[in-house]
Description:
- The chain has helices spanning 8-22, 62-78, 89-95, 113-117, 121-128, 140-149, 189-203, 218-227, 245-251, 266-273, 285-290, 305-316, 319-332, 338-352, and strands at 28-31, 48-51, 82-86, 103-108, 134-137, 155-157, 176-180, 208-212, 234-238, 254-257, 278-281, 297-300.
- The protein is of the alpha/beta class and 354 residues long.
- Strands 9-8-7-10-11-12 form a six-stranded parallel beta sheet, with helices on both faces. It has a four-stranded parallel beta sheet with strand order 3-4-5-6, with helices on both faces.
- The longest helix has 17 residues, at 62-78.
- Residues 177-331 form the Glycosyl transferase family domain.
Amino acid sequence: MDADTLGGIQRVTHTVAQGLAERGHDVHVVGLHRAESPFRYVERPGYRHHVIHRTPIGKVSRLGRHRERRVLGGLFRELGAGFAVLASPGVVTRLAPLLPEHLLPIGQYHGSYEHARGSWHLGSVRGHYGRLEKAVFLSEDDAWLFSEHALLPNTWAIPNPLPAWPTRTAELTGHRVLGVGRLEGVKRFDRLISAFAESCRAVGGDWELHLIGEGEELERLRSHARACGVARRVVFRGAVPAAEMGREYLDGSLLGLSSEHEGLPLVLGEAASHGVPSVAFDVSGGVRTLVVDQETGLLVPPADVTALAAALAGLMSSVEERRRLGTAARAHVEAFRLERVLDRWEALFAQVGR
């Protein structure tokens, strides 16, 4: 819907687009609407970028719909035979009927089955994705669940890629827990703060929780940290540029993920690529793909703050265990390196194009 907002879907879209362009593909990124605060993901894009409407996401007038069909029709006629990757249920329902025969539709879903089941997404995926060439999900677990419960005959799994691969790994000797993401309700950083406070009481020492991100929950989370007695230990860092996040991971010793729901959260993979293990709520197949419980990190039941606190405390008290899990985590997420994910996209294109 909007290709330039600061967000996970947009970041993945531009990363994959640039990677495919560098492999010689003619790639076009199409955003139906203008972003309210455009974010530049690629400095020198090798792909073409189109924005159809000058207005942010919202209701489109009849005249606007007519213009949308006209502009997209002209763009589609310019393109040769290829594939149209439709990145959300809303885009599928809006654009799939407009595609010419020479552009084969592939539907992508960036959430988890667990999240789709609790929203309108499952009905939309069930009603529309089965008519596309392929329906692409973030993990094998999610692809299987959608094939079983949404009765899709055309599922495929491709994870989100890591945009870069670091050459250095964290020492894991510092006393810093990381929480990375938008300060919004769905991320439930209040639960991470509560669990951190409980783990500090169990472990002691000078541990800090650094929350990296911006959002409307900032003041509420500050108040919650004060109520939990850890106001001086919770550091609100604000937004950190993507180019500087490597240093944040290198300075961390473990990462906590306390979200209500997730698709395939790249923060887990980015932390792992730096050798930093994670403790996460087990909320999706994507999370389970990135974190293998007891092998590359720790998973706890969703919303179980006591279990999250115990898992954090266990790793906070043992640098040896952090290093064991961190080493295995880095090896595990090799599969999410950009070149390997691009290979999977090209394999999909080859199969669909037969």
